[in-house]
Amino acid sequence: MIPRMQSFLKYWTDVLLHWLGLTSETSAGWDRWVAFIIALLVVALFDFLCRLVVVRGGRQLVERTQVHLHWVNEIFSADVLRHSCHIVSAVVSSFVLPLIFEADSGARMVIDRLVDIFIVVALFRWVNALLFAIFYIAERRPAWQNKPIKGLRQTGQGMALLICVVLIISILMDKSPAILLTGLGASAAVLMLIFRDSILGFVSGIQLSANNMLQVGDWISVPKYGADGTVLEVSLSTVKIRNWDNTVVTLPPYVLVSESFQNWHAMQLSGGRRVMRSISIDMTSVRFCTAEMLARYRAFDLIREYIDAIEQRIEMQNIAQGRTRLERRINGLHQTNLGIFRAYLLRYLQREVPVNRDMTLMVRQLQPTETGIPIQLYFFTNTVDWIAYEGIQADLFDHVLAVIPAFDLRVFQNASGNDLRSLRIADDDPVLPNL
DSSP label at 269? Predict the structure, then answer.
């Protein structure tokens, strides 16, 4: 096979030199370089024909056989097949090109090294395309969807690139790769400084993926870095987050591992979003309920049965303790307008507001402060949609603020300009400015 190829190159070299008006005796070594060019053209033609047959034929074969397995279509994709053809062409060139020059010549040594580098590069590009196909297949699997596997793919590509670079340098230096790696060990500190972010990103990406801390599509909040939105991409060196104002924040993965961040994905899966808001009640408006007040409150359907039940229990307890009606004013049990208001809010939440009944629901009184008594509504909506969530709590607190005066209570708020204007009109005080 090799003698035939040499004869073939020799024949076409003589034909080309004769056409140029030269002979082997007068060409002064140019015949070898002409043969080298012819060999390059032959390898390029072989590569073209190989791609034409393998890529097109392979894709048509996959389509005609109607293979519905997604991984088959990706493994035999055009990129993988094309780079496979480049490997074959590189191997062919390693047999053809070195035959043109003498074994001990400098040109033969250079050609050998260039061909070896060509093979290494072709292999690297094929591995790179294969990694793309494999990780694309993984992304389509339900168990891997929305997983931050792009960083793992980039890690694999980075390792392949490192091996490729080491092999190329060892070929150029004509040294064993093991010797080169031993020398790199001495400069590991420098390499760690250069590739610090990549190394930290690689380790952090593995932690994020292994601990299921983060997925593409999650809503996360990192207030320290102004990030509050949806995760767009998790790569080896960056995590891209689209904020709700459509700005994009880019963070290194090790920031999310080393510092705290809030992931709202569990809330989205739970089917309920928490509402925890308070209204401050003026403490001077809290009082015992009189018979007239209870009669008015019984007009509210939500608490009519509650008022009657509590009144009956209080009356029975007062009678059991032998308290007279006069003593009941101080020592006896009484209902308060604030207590009835809390009962009303609880029943209103249970019956009129779309809440998640499988989660905590309560109306509680917090520690009184100089701004009044905070009455907190703590519950979960039955939806996690942001717009619907905001609408639910807005409608609820609109109703709460409007119904508070019906219970003879007042909302605490600081004095405003309108309050001062009303005070001036009431007192007719000329000292106060006309606001």
Answer: H
If we measure between CA atoms, which residue out of 302, 396, 314, 369 comes closest to residue 340?
302
HSE-CB at 280 with a 13 A cutoff on CA atoms is: 10
From the list 269, 233, 270, the residue with the least C-alpha distance to 151 is: 233
Place of tokens 């994009």: 248
* H or E element in which residue 292 lies: helix 291-297
Check: CB of residue 92 under 8 Å from CB of residue 45. no
DSSP string, 44-67: HHHHHHHHHHHHHHHHHHHHHTT-
Query: Strands of 274-281's sheet, edge to edge?
Result: 274-281, 373-380, 362-365
Task: Report pLDDT digits (tens) over 163-218.
Answer: 888 888 888 877 777 776 666 665 666 666 666 776 777 777 777 766 778 888 88
For residue 144 the two structure tokens come to 């891997």
Residues near 271 by beta carbon (within 8 Å), at least 6 away in sequence:
356, 382, 383, 384
> How far is it, in rounded angstroms, from Cα 277 to Cα 279?
7
Structure token digits, residue 202: 């690689």
Taking only the tens place, the pLDDT of each residue in 282-294 is 999 999 998 899 9
Distances (CA, A) of 363 to 159, 277, 340, 398, 410: 58, 10, 12, 16, 18
CB 261 within 8 Å of CB 220: yes
Own/partner contacts of 43-51, CB < 8 Å, gap of 24 or more, are 43/89, 43/92, 43/93, 43/96, 43/97, 46/89, 46/92, 47/85, 47/86, 47/88, 47/89, 50/85, 50/88, 50/89, 51/81, 51/82, 51/85
**What residues are paired with 231 via a beta bridge?**
241
How far apart CA 131 and CA 121 sit, in angstroms, is 15
In the predicted structure, residue 360 carries a pLDDT above the cut 90: yes
In this prediction, residue 2 carries a pLDDT of: 47
Residue spans of beta strands (DSSP E) within 205-300: 219-222, 227-234, 239-243, 248-251, 262-263, 274-281
Output Rg (C-alpha) for the chain, integer angstroms. 41
Sheet bearing 239-243, strands edge to edge: 248-251, 239-243, 227-234, 219-222, 262-263
Element housing 364 (H / E): strand 362-365
